[in-house]
Amino acid sequence: MQLKKIISLLLITCSVVTVSQAQQDKKVEEICYNPNAKGDTSKRSIKSAAVGKIGDANITINYHSPGVRGRTIWGGLVPYDDVWVTGAHFATNIEIDKDITVSGTAIPKGKYAIFTIPAKDEWIIIINKNWNQHLTDDYLQQEDVVRIQVKPEQLDEKVERLQYFIEDDKDGKGSIAMAWEKVKVKFYINTTR
Fold first, then answer.
1. Mean pLDDT of 114-133
2. How far apart are CA 124 and CA 113, in angstroms?
3. The 144-150 sheet, strands edge to edge
4. Element (H, E) at 174
5. What does the alpha-carbon distance between residue 160 and residue 176 come to, in Å, rounded to a whole number?
6. Top-confidence residue, 33 or 82
7. Distance (Å, rounded) from C-alpha 108 to C-alpha 97?
8. What percent of the chain shows pLDDT beyond 90?
């Protein structure tokens, strides 16, 4: 009976996992759905994770991955110039087991939320102290650790489900990227001091 409960729990918590090249020579992507969910799970956001390393820092990003499903995303479902959880349901969170530097700001190891403020020509990526938030209900700007201004990259191919990527560029440097629909944004991390 206990084994049946464990198997059921594992099936329910199955998620999208992207493993960085630092861990394997190729990227692995797997999508699993909760077999106990009622209705069409293709129309739901999927609980997902990206796991990887940059330098000697282990990084895990937990998020809910919504689908495009024929909707207008930028300036529609996701309004411009508003703080967004950069996923669905709960704030996307990032956990880092080593101190890092982002845009010249030292960030101690720990768990943080990732928010963004999308705009047509420039986005703001936010790392916030309060990682456990529902949507932006509890978001407070004074809890921001760092804000990074980035230019969105237009993609040729559509990315149906929102995805995060952890990219190790070697020598303790790398980036974290988010892609959805035909837009990709990224910010850079340094793990050396």
1. 96
2. 14
3. 17-19, 46-54, 57-65, 92-96, 110-117, 123-128, 144-150
4. strand 173-190
5. 19
6. 82
7. 9
8. 72
